[in-house]
Amino acid sequence: MPHDITFIGHVCLDRIAPYQGQEQVAPGSAVLCGAMAAARIGCRTAVITRMAPADDGYLDPLRAAGVDCLLVPAPATTEMIVIHPSPDVDEREMRQVKNAGFMQADEIPTLDSRFVHLAGITDREFDLPFMRAMRQRGYSLSVDMQSFVRQVDEDSRVISFADVADKAAIVSLMDRVKLDVVEAEILTGQRDLARAAAMVADWGCPEVVITRADGVLARVEGRTLFSPFTNRSTVGRTGRGDTTFAGYMARRLSEDPAEALRFASALVSLKMERPGPFAGTLDDVLERLRETTVEEQA
Length: 298
What we know:
globular; UDP-N-acetylmuramoyl-L-alanine:D-glutamate ligase; alpha/beta; 10-stranded mixed β-sheet; single chain; 16 strands
């Protein structure tokens, strides 16, 4: 069956402790948040993930939303602990206590998909041979750079954020890349989003999308675009970047980068007002678009 977007990566169990809030335990990951958002707004969506077959039920919300799911059997399902120690929603402490293992090219069937997105949550999912194999198949390919910046210590399982030696090689394989403000600074040394995006683009990727607390920026064909978020709260902050990029890809199927960015900003603003993956509709997003803007930066 043909798909608009195929998400590849781990679906995991998330244990999230908000600042001065109650712990939330639920299936999560970049794959789940992104695929749910894409499906809810009408995209033909697929997911390919590695996990323990006993945890197949974690995929039920995706199937209920109309997502086609392929489970690659693994000895364990990835499990994450995420702690927000302060009111700053961009400050997180993370540990990966279980991991499902690296994706393998021979586990991925031939895909009939307009976009293929590598949506990892740590550096334990994709390696360069896998990404080169996906590129050689001719897919329109994108990746979330958190898949490499988030590095799991083999002993403590604590996730630290660090520069990536192969960053230019990774980016050069992609048609689109997604980062957040923390990852962008780590990879480029730049606090300014526009400068960071330009540096990443210079590594060989035509579309760079970066999120931060107040909005989302895109660098496309030498143009820098920014759309501020319009969310009323941040109770659903987890999955912000994943949802933003899913909305961006979904709209890029038919629209130019500026309109895709504005759409993504509207969608994720709604998502951040409720915990969990995006649960709204396309009509909800179109309504929020009325108050969502995008501007080109010099």
